[in-house]
Each structure stands twice: as C-alpha cells, then as structure tokens.
Amino acid sequence: AGVYAAAAWAIAPACLVLAPIPLAVFVGYPYLKRVTPWCHLGVGLGLAMAPLGGWFAARLSFQDPGPALLLAGFTLAWVAGFDVIYSTLDEAFDRSAGVRSLPARYGRRRALAISRALHAAAWLCLAVLVFRMASFPALPLLAGVGALLAWEQAKADDIDLAFFRINVGVGFAALATVMAGLAGRSP
C-alpha cells in the first residue's frame, strides 16, 4: 500500500486523495459474496476504476469523462461477465458454503444468460466509444471483439478455453480497438 500511495502522490497530490477509493472497492469485493449474488459486479467495478483513474491522472480533472466512462463501462461488464462464467465451476460449493454468486442463486443456465447480457453491454460500450471517436479503422477490430465475446459465451462449458484463452484475446482485441480508434480519429 505504501508504494501505491507513493506512486499516486508522485503523479499528483490529488491522485493520492482519490487513491483509497479503488482500495476500498478491492477490499470490499470479497465481502460482497456474503451479501449479494451480484458480487461479480464488484470485481468488475474494481477493474473499471483503472480507466477512470488513468483519465484523472492524465488530466487532473474529470472534465469530459465520456470516453473514460465508456471504457469503464466496457471493463465493468466484460470482467463481471467472465467472472460469472468462471464462477460456474463453484456453483455447488457456493451453495453449500453460503457464498452468493449468480450461478448459486439462479443456476448455471440463467447465470450464463446474465453473463451474455453483460458481454453484450460491454461490447455496446466499446462500440459507442469507437463511434464517438469517429474512427472507422477501429471497426474491424470492434467486430473482432464482438466475435470473441460470442465465442467465449459459446465455449462457456470449456472454462480453460473460454476463460484463460479466449478471454485473454478479448482483452488484447479491446486494447487494439481503442488504440486503432485513437490513431484513426477524424479531426
């Protein structure tokens, strides 16, 4: 935590003031599993804070936060969606131990339907970001992200493939989409 605080202060004292917020989210996330089956959104929120923090650190303000909010929305829904897929492995244990998760509460089939909806929302956030940048060179990559998310959902029964391989591809494809979007923006 000391290195984290020092790094935040080195960027700007205002970053140090905001630094406890992500820590609180990550510390609180494990407790959500005792409170709500929607705990998957907690881990998504923790990672979604990265684009918001990066936006603030680069600008030292939250002026015009639209792009950061869209990227954060993508991150939140993407991470929560794949966390639901991964948590299907623990459905029986979660039920027996009183851990709340979407699979434990609603069953595998409904949980995976929610995961699909989260991934659709993630793709939509990324699409709005690309169209907001008016960057047509990013469109094929955006289509690739959609295809990978659909493939991940289709292979949800094969956790090794879906979670550890396809999902990594989604992350790199999303990064490439944003980078192409920035490089190809219309003036």
Could you characterize what this model shows?
The protein is an all-alpha fold and 187 residues long. The protein has a single domain (2-183), classed as UbiA prenyltransferase (Four Helix Bundle (Hemerythrin (Met), subunit A), Up-down Bundle). 80% of the residues lie in helices and 0% in strands. It is built from ten helices and no strands. It has helices at residues 2-11, 13-18, 20-32, 40-59, 66-87, 91-97, 102-106, 108-133, 139-154, 159-183. It is flat, with a radius of gyration of 18 Å.
Number of strands: 0
- Name the overall outline: flat
Indicate the CATH architecture. Answer: Up-down Bundle
User: What is the overall number of helices?
Assistant: 10
Give average pLDDT, whole number.
Answer: 94
Segments where pLDDT lies below 50 for 5+ residues? none
- CATH topology-level fold name: Four Helix Bundle (Hemerythrin (Met), subunit A)
Rg over C-alpha atoms, rounded to the nearest angstrom = 18 Å
